[in-house]
Automatic annotation (TrEMBL):
Biased composition (Polar residues): 1-29
Transmembrane spans: none
Annotated stretches, region: Disordered: 1-35, 517-550, 615-637
Composition-biased stretches (Basic and acidic residues): 615-629
Organism: Zasmidium cellare (Wine cellar mold)
Protein name: F-box domain-containing protein
Amino acid sequence: MATQLETQTETSLSLNTTRDTTHSTTEPPANTPKEKLQFGTLSKEIKELVVERVIRPSDLKNVCLVSKELHEIAVRYLYRNVSLDLGSPNDSRLSAFLSPKNIGLKHIKQLRLYLATVYDKCNQEQQAQFAARMILEFLPEDTLEEFRYARRSPLPLPDEEDELDSWCPWKPFSTDNLILLYKRQRKMKWLEVMDLDRDALPELKKNAKMQETMFKNARKLALYPENRETLNLSGFYVEKTKDQLEELIVHCNFPSDASDSRELNDSATAPGLVSNTIFSCMTPFDTCTPFQNLKSLRLHRISLRHCADTWCKFINFHEMQYLRIYHCTGADSLFGQLSKSSHLPKQLKVLEFQHRDNAENEALVALDGFLCLVSGLRDLVLDLDHVKALPAAAGIAKHGKTLELLNVHCTAEGHTNPITSTECDTDELIWDFEDFEKICKACKDLEQLSCAWPHTSLIRSPSDDWRSFENACGHLRNMVTLHISTWPSNKPSTQLLPRPVYETMLQALAQRGFELAAGQHSSSSTSPPPSIDEDDSESSTSESEQRPAKLRIIAFGTSDKIYEREDSKNQFIFVRSTCYDAEGRPKVYAAPVGWCLRQFVEPRSDVLDFVLHQSDRSNKPPCRDHRDTSAWGDEDE
């Protein structure tokens, strides 16, 4: 018995020893440090997600120079949208751009061509057309989704003298280049109808194979009719794409003194030449089937006085999500029709309206009624001229739960504004403090705001009206971009400040706004706090203490540039940055930034992209430029 017990004991001890040895070899010691994750050891999918967040082209270029793997990842985002200036000595660099070794060519999705600004314009257009053909020849096939050709939108006011010059900087586009584009790029989602050097419709109708490929993937259609040929070509494009069309742009540019101007617009008896030709495939309109998938509509210089018998027949406004109306006569009739239950949009997200109203302000009245009926707007852009008052604050506050972008500017002609006429030297209307505060309280999720502010002087403390607007903006805790279209002055001084001095003092005013948003301004404790309701006073106070303000950009003035790659001299933009004082403590700093660069610093600043009525007039800052100053520092007489 003793021998058996000793044998069993030894066997159990040996098993336990074996288990301990196995356990010790499989599990690492607890004190062994874990290996830190590095960017180079991450998977390619995670690296793509990281690089996708880089939006500045210069940063993407630097990422391409890091390694071969990052070059392959970043190049697809760097070459996704390409804009080229043609017709200059820089065209010689296109050979390197179109090299077969350039792996970024196959990633180009959007291509925009502009005419370069040069001193000697002799044969510039022919050189640009040749460069455009070379680009289309050497680009890989079936890569482009969108091709645009130097079109400016929206148009200036019809009464301007240089309207035709600002419409298109190029002569008609080459038909041969357009046919080459459709032959090589068969996956285009964006198609344009532009003025050509010859009629391309017969050649397109003869080529059945081209028709099958070029219209197969088309989802967006931009029509720029300005003569009979472009009208007929637009009707052909609409006929081929009406079943799958999702976005439609109709931008007319017929001369106002044309002999057939009356025939172009719709009348009470019959449709006009524009609607009857472009949408000929849907006639008669009373029995037609509206566009089934159309969600976005943008109209420029279209007469909508009798839209009930035309546009409201072949457009299903009930399903419209994006509606943009620019310089369309009779727009009040359209808003009157949209206010009816049969046409009222149920999912409208974006509304942009730029209009010159009549003496009775019929468009403003119709707009106020429409805003009170529709719901769920996310972006609201209103630019009205020749009106007596701003849009009603109640209609804007109705969309407070969904509104993210608000851009409202109104100017008056022949009417005096007590604030603007005596102090601000501008005819732009300014909200009353009660209306402005009502909008700020209702639209708490607003991220971008653009409007006119009361007058203040840069050489004095901010005015009471200016302080009231600052306090009202305290309710907008999610606001990222603030655009103030009116200029502060240096009154009561009668001499204009030099431009560098004015910009420096304007920078100090912008820095005050950033400091107030961050709660770092020295006078923030003495200024009255924004009024809040008694019921949610405790929640609002705790929320303001826990969540910092998101204000990132403050801009003054309106841009006078339509060209998207050039900064404006009549707009000052400041971005919120950080500086350190003498004791090393961080402080808020308003850093000046250009119009082109700010879109890469803060993408949520597209409210500055809109061209307003004020930009068509003299909207220069109230300062003295260098060319207006003599060598002795005095103004030239």
